[in-house]
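Try it yourself: sequence plus glutamine, in.
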Amino acid sequence: MTERNTSAPVYSLAICHLYPGLLDGNSDIGNLLVLTQRMRWRGIEPQVLEYHPGGLFPQGIDLIIGGGYASDAKKILTPDLPRIAQPIRELIEAGVPALAVCGSFQMLGTHTINIDGKTSEGVGVFDAYTVLESKRLVGNIITENAEMGTIIGYENHQGRTYLGPSALPFAQVISGAGNNGADKTEGIHYKHAIGTYLHGPLLPKNPLIADYLIRHAFERKYAESLPPLAAQQAALMEAYTDSARSRAMARPR
Ligand code: GLN
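Structure, out:
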């Protein structure tokens, strides 16, 4: 029998996955897989707590993620959102990291003006609002973040999102549409929360973003620096990531 090293610290981080099943446009589930795997490779046990419509918002959350959605899902999400708006706001204001992709990015903003002209209220933690238009903005997108460098993904949205005067974009658009196809901003960065239009899924091609989220969740909970990835796994992953990134960047829009 193998002996366990009982003196080794046992780390764990709880991820709240918002509306799985409704919010998995364009394979956004891949973001969860990357987060949980990169946690395990650092000796951190991930605990995934799902929030479904009508449920109780989970306690003890260290990180929040949400993906994009197909238009039908909005009918279910919009009336449910007031149930979770306050806990999400409180967590993000308290520095809990979050990744909100596409429909979730819109949802965490102040409001969305729908095609029929009606307004849906958002969580209101991001100083941003969205106007849906019939023409979708679709294709490969390349952006640049000052700290993380080139961020690559695929966008597919009707929403045109406009940031408030104090809001910081997550990245600048190099090629593609981004938040609204006009002002070259992509996403939003507020405290440790990131809103973005990038699918792909995002994190396999941009693992620095996964590490940013994990680092802030870990440091907030344990007040220690994040354990490194095991060297062998890091090297293997780097090779896959580099290959995926160079292929994605060579693709036409
Ligand atoms: N229906 C929203 C839009 O098109 C969200 C799309 C998405 O999440 N992929 O803007």
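One thing you can check immediately is this: The chain has a mean pLDDT of 93.
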